Amino acid sequence: MMKSKYYILLFLAACFLFSCKKNEVSTTSSVKQDLIIDLNKLNNEIVHFQKLVSNNKSQKEIVEQFKKSRLAYKKVEWAIEYFMPDIARFMNGPALDEMELEENKSFEPHGFQVIEEIIYPEYNIADKDNVIKESKIFQSNIKQVQNIFEVITISDNHILDAVRQTVYRVITLGITGFDSPILQSSISETGESLISVLKPMESINSNSKTLEELKKLTRSAQKYCEENNNFNTFNRAIFITEYLNPISKKIKTFQKEENIKNVNKTSPLKPEIETLFDKDAFDVNAFVLSQEYNFTADKSKLGEKLFYDTNLSKNNNRSCASCHNPEKAFTDGLKTNVSLTGSNLARNTPTLTYASLQNAQFWDMRQLDLEKQSVDVIQNKDEMHGSMDDIHAKILLNKEYLALFKKAYPKTAKPEAWQIQNAIASYVRSLNAFDSRFDEYMRGNKNALNNEEIEGMNLFMGKAKCATCHFTPLFNGTVPPSYSKSEHEVIGTPQDASGKKLSPDQGRYIYNKMPQLVGAFKTPTVRNAAVTAPYMHNGVFKTLEEVVDFYNKGGGQGLGYEVENQTLPFDELKLTKNEEKALVAFMKTLTDKKYQ
Asked: Which of 369, 398, 428 is the last residue of a domain?
């Protein structure tokens, strides 16, 4: 009898496993089939676009067909961006050279944004061959994508991960105009992006009640975009809080109901979050070198003691906190600090708050992680002029430090040199509060911001184009939604307050001799900007009002400087005085509670 039951259970288990495997294959097959069909439709739109260009049709016809092609792309973007980000970069990435700094190489951009710059706002028929060439490159990328989709497996957990990433992309890149900077067709495209994720979710469970609720919410979001499709007046505050965040939560509910596990990967965004604005949404450990460098509270406590210890400097008179004052959000309030000999340093002291959520450190991005950043400063002869060997030797003789190191690194018998760097870095990794009034508002407290501040938020993410470089919600240059790369910008910063000359500081070019990097600096966070004046790599601007005025005029080129490689759009933003005031008011809402 027991043996009979055993065989029955074995048979049922085999049937269940076969059924699951069959369903997964069926899911993969249907999703891939839909993608191939949509890719063919996209290709047809590109072919039609080519014909209009070849036949010298009017700019209006060409632009309208271009918009149709972009809409067709939005139907498959969720999968291309997730499974093939390197190809996606050359289909709808920025019209800027892609650089491989390790190999000292750069690659010309291709795709929609390159074509957009050629055909709009003015189209010269002399550029016809160039447009056709770019569209053919786009077709070859479509073919490459099709070939990859034919051979890869698309599992349910990857579908859900890609869907969630699509919502985050809409928030951070879509409604900000990042991928349609000139035509500004992002709002009408947003609805298509959101609708596109429903089909792959249906392949998981088309009878889900939560999915039906998600469909209604998504269609309402699409309708909102259709009825409010003016890029400059679009209310992003309402759209995120009343549509995108609820959509994000429904997707998470669907995942839980279907018992779909998170994708096993290291990601700056924690898989358990419901929205991009959850307090603990970001994982600092995704930016560390390896697991032994991971953040712990004990490491942070040790790092805090080291951070305030003047014994780390050669003359025992300067600590990390000497230049990174915690009361000023870990800046110093100076245009530039002074060296140990009393001369002025070349650059402004940046905030350490949220510094751990970047893939490069220092204004020139010369170090990739906080561990190297700390030792760079400690050993710099102008800043601390310390010796890591000497510091290590001192620690080995200090009982208080030995006890703290033992608690922070229990697997090692005595403190090791790399642990000093890691402990200081761990303390810096603890400085991300995410408790500003902006954060409260995004989590549902509608009284956290007033009307002027909400207007400023909409300007920041819209007309003023701030969020195309300072990505929401980190407000730095770490590119969402994968957060695997931090950007630099060339903005043409003045040398001094008179604004007569361009800053001579060559930025990243000092360490990477590529012409695109002359005057390139890391895009810092705008969080806590209200308490971290002065601004820019050289501290040239004393107030946020001056910063906004500079951008409103079009940066260095707008001021008349020769900045051939400027990445910042040099056209005037045409912000009114009231809009400038609202923009500053919004940036002040990004201040953490402890600094308010």
From this structure: 428
